[in-house]
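Long-time lurker. I teach an intro course on protein structure, and each term I like to show students one example going from raw sequence to a predicted 3D structure in token notation. This year I'd like something fresh instead of my usual example. Would anyone be willing to generate the tokens for the chain below so I can use it in lecture? Attribution to the forum is fine with me.
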Amino acid sequence: MAYKIKFGTDGWRGVIAEDYTFDNVRRAAQGFAAYMLSQGKAGEWIVIGHDKRFHSENFAVAAAEVLAGNGLNVWLTEGATPTPVIAFSVVNKRAAGAINITASHNPPTDNGFKVRNETGGAIDPEGLKQIEAGIPDSVEAVRRLPYAAAVSEGKIVRFDPAPAYIEHIHKLIDLEPIKAAGLTVMVDAMWGNGAGWLPRLLEGGKTRVLEIHNQRNPVFPEMKRPEPIPPNINAGLKATVENRADVLLVLDGDADRLGVGDENGQFVNQLRVYALLAYYLLELRGERGDIVKTLSTTGMLNILGEQYGVRVHETGVGFKYVAPKMTETNALIGGEESGGYAFRGNVPERDGILAALYMLDFMVRLGKKPTELLRVLFEKVGGEFFYDRVDSPFTGDRAAREQIILNAKPETIGGLKVKELVTLDGFQFKLEDGGWLLIRFSGTEPILRVYCETRHGDKVQAILQDGLKVAGIG
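-- Reply from a regular --
Happy to contribute to a lecture. Here you go:
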């Protein structure tokens, strides 16, 4: 029986040489091609890019051959390219969509296959179902045109996506004040696609940009995976202190997510970063527009929405929900718990590079370091918010475990009264302090995630442990 390719929260991911093989990449590309043809896109252009994982550039060529064999044309990036740059290239080239060969923040054993529409944003869940339905069971049913022939016929064209993206960035933010500020900025590129981008954008002034992990190394030394959270960023936090840097900016493997460390080498969690970015846009730049957030991110956004008179939309987890809602509402900002943030004026795709520049601009405008920015934010929202997450492998039937969670009906979690259960995506228990506990299953891995946010720092671990118990674990 043929291996079933499933698109999860953000595309298809698999273990290289086990299920992520050249034949299966070709099958996935055939499904995408069939979907594009069904949408009336025959003869149009598709952007294909890739990350620095094992064989990514060759998997990208394999996908390009399939699209060329199906009557589509391909703009193929010259080298490893950040996901947000690939997304922008779709709009800049007026392409019909994109394929991105990347497993983002997954372990080094994995690779992935992301798809995007003509906005550069994620294809909605219904579109993903159509792509899956078009994936043939056998590679024998795949149509492909060999790379050399496709290049010769002008159906695959290599291009450098950097100049157009950089020109676009300069329209969104004035970099000169950041260059002149004399900051010391530590950047952890996590061996990925973001290497070199921030030094290139900020060179020529008094600000120094110091990079670590900026070579290609598909085994990702000094971290379990290129995900911008502890313990993966511990080397970056240490380097921040050693170099007396003002801030640590961490780009994940494909540079669509941002992690932040403060001037003391302490991690600033991604919920706080999202609230900081929203506050920066609303207060310092005076912009107004809707906020789109997944239910797994911070309630501080709801408070800011009330204070600034903007609507806040909650979606399921994943940019396949966030991107369409951003497009529908022309939202000011959209984001999720994993450290991915998207902005109006850019494409509806996470952009770690732009988020990093906005964070630096925030620091420069107020003349404050990250710890001081957080104090300003907490004063605005009425106090500190605390967050943590624990991931646990699970065994057995998922449906049975979901029933265990539904049957639990806890009256309190972590000593706080449960006010409501929301089942938009997973199981979110709203708590009396305005905080929440969320239990949900990963869309890409056999893992159960338990997240929480609360105003009580001393209750975080108790909430998470109660969450595991509700899920029948521990």
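Some talking points for your students: Residues 22-38 form the longest helix (17 residues). The domain at 12-163 is CATH 3.40.120.10 (Alpha-D-Glucose-1,6-Bisphosphate; Chain A, domain 3).
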